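MOLECULE: protein
FOLLOWS: sequence and fold
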Amino acid sequence: MLDVARRNNVRVLGNPHGRPLVFAHGFGCSQEVWRRVAPHFLDDYLVVTFDHVGAGQSDLAAYDRSKYDALDGYASDVLEILAELDLTDVVFVGHSVSSMIGVLAANADPSRFGALVLVGPSPRYVNDGDYVGGFERADITELLDTLDANYLGWSAAMAPVIMGNADRPELGEELTESFCRVDPSIARHFAHVTFLSDNRGDLARVSVPTLILQCMDDVIAPTAVGDYVHAQIPGSTLVTIPVAGHIPSLSGPEHVVAAMREYLG
């Protein structure tokens, strides 16, 4: 029997009688990325945060390259966490790549989920015909080659770009430090899995209510991607929040909280 809580460094806080609210972080981050958002929901919700295997304080010994060679491996972990805690009617809040991990998990077992909140989602980062993902294939190849050659150097250069908000350099520095805390070999593998993924075909199968939070001036998930996700997920709601960059939980947490509260009621 897997020790799921230890493997994913699961933390459970808030109202034990409240609706479950599960936060999942994106590439290069940990559950700490939600520290300015999650506390706002503690009075009314059962708040669950965790680290993907390979990130934060997760059990690095549990990292299996074959399992995590696709996002489905991470989605299976999410379902194991929900089963371990016996949670249903879950509001799953996924940032960046965790948006698609949440989509995969909800499609695999919709009985566990009550809603999805997708923050800066992208089902495919590479442009493909009429589909605008934000990057040409050559761009992604160069990004991954640079990351493979010098992960720490790549982190120092890319983190401020991903974060945006050049007038607040402390945010880029925080993201750089987060990137640098991840084991480089795991980060390289996760980056390849993330940036080469294509989950466009999974969107139409989403059967639970979905909120899409789109940031302005997001170099990783531009507005065209948010529009695409909204068009593909039946009955979804798209909200553009007045926050620049790709990590609004750090750069504009109050806007994330307000949009979530308005949607969830």
Remarks:
- The two ends are 38 Å apart (CA to CA).
- The chain has eleven helices and seven strands.
- The mean pLDDT is 95.
- The beta strands are 11-14, 19-24, 45-49, 90-95, 113-119, 210-216, 237-244.
